[in-house]
Amino acid sequence: MTMLPLPFPAAEPPDRLTDPRDLLDGYLDYYRGALLRKLDGLSDERLRTAVLPSGWTPIQLFKHLTYVEIRWLRWGFAGEAVEHPWGDRGPGERSPGEPWHVAEDETFEELKEFFLDTVRRSKEIVAAAPLDAFSAPGPRYPNPDLPASLIWILFHLLQEYARHLGHLDAVRELLDHAAGE
Hints:
Layout lengths: L19 H20 L4 H4 L10 H20 L30 H20 L22 H27 L5
Helix pairs in contact: 1-5, 3-4, 3-5
Pfam family, one: MST
Protein name: DinB family protein
InterPro entries: DinB/YfiT-like, MST-like
């Protein structure tokens, strides 16, 4: 079943916003939508073309950001059992320095649906907890004395999106001269 896309805003949250939850939610949704907008219009060939020396492709970055959400919110904060939390690293266990992986038979549309489902679950987790709540003990945080707070995790996600969208800006400009949003 294909679900309708989330209503991601095309503009940053208002500059007079003072509520931390609204500000974090607003910026995360803005960056989630910016990710989709920056990938929009790229052919499958260009989605799978590496133009930077590090060798990653736009579709690999897209899958990586999906798994970033899974690792930090589902597996990390909520302590949910996630079969392959490092699924952006390819089959098997995660190896340090291993490049992001997208199988040849994985389509952008399938990954987009997976991303949207992941974001929906992320938003449910965030909505159900106060910002000062700490992560549940689990595989990501096995020591209950060293949990991460939800507000820290959300700031971390925000910087992941901002950093990688900057990378994607450069890649998109190199691929087809599209710049900015």
